[in-house]
Amino acid sequence: MRITMNNMNSDVIPHNKLPDLVLGKLMDWIMDGKLHMGEKLNTEELANQLGVSRMPIREALSNLEKMGLAESVPYVGTRLIKLTKDDVKEIYIARQALEPVAGYHACKHVTEEHIRLLEKINCQYKVTVCQDEVPAKDVYKINRYYHFTIYSISGLPRICSMIESLWDSLSFFKLIYGQKFIKDVYSRERMMEEHDSYLEALRERDSEKLYRLLQTNLARRIEDIPYDASAYFEE
């Protein structure tokens, strides 16, 4: 049965930093598969569901648009975007242009403290993906945490912000891919090997190596996009 805004579990948000908290809740619903590509977002329904006024809902929906996850359609209202396979490919091409640069500069600034933090995150990632039952959202979040911990070391906040926007735009795609990934032993092992290789390059302070690794791995994603349109949209 499709989960709609009307039958989601009630989760009233406290009245502080409401737009950010509403946005966080919408992102959770997207990652949990409770909201689908192309689904209309009704301001009044969301306000009733979350126990807030319509103003923070409007601000959160505006932020979703800025993140590339929603769009305003004349005579329709706000709805979540629909990503085609070509859209996903274009986003990965943009990631391939930016993430190796961030990795390259991260190697220039990485400290032993950074390395220790990344080792802890990487260990937690391995524990997470090797569980018998694990939500795709958990894999996505810890993988994102690992990558952005690396990129943040670069000292390039504008580039990191652009990368973050691209990741946000792929939330739907990563959820579907993640559900397939966690069931495939080879995919899990390959991702763990990729994470280990990034950490090794950082330990060696080898900027060129990390640049090549990120570029090569993202090129592989571009060539092998596991896109199934029927998996993304509500029936």
Topology of this structure?
Layout lengths: L17 H14 L11 H8 L3 H13 L3 E4 L3 E4 L4 H25 L2 H18 L6 H17 L4 H13 L1 H11 L3 H19 L3 H17 L12
Antiparallel strand pairs: 1-2
Describe the structure.
It is a single chain. The chain has 235 residues and is mostly helical. The chain has two domains: 18-80, Winged helix-like DNA-binding domain superfamily/Winged helix DNA-binding domain (Arc Repressor Mutant, subunit A, Orthogonal Bundle); 85-231, GntR ligand-binding domain-like (Four Helix Bundle (Hemerythrin (Met), subunit A)). The chain is built from ten helices and two strands, in the order H-H-H-E-E-H-H-H-H-H-H-H. It has helices spanning 18-31, 43-50, 54-66, 85-109, 112-129, 136-152, 157-169, 171-181, 185-203, 207-223; strands spanning 70-73, 77-80. Strands 1-2 form a two-stranded antiparallel ribbon. The longest helix is centred in the middle third of the chain and has 25 residues, at 85-109. The termini are close together. Residues 1-5 have low confidence and may be disordered.
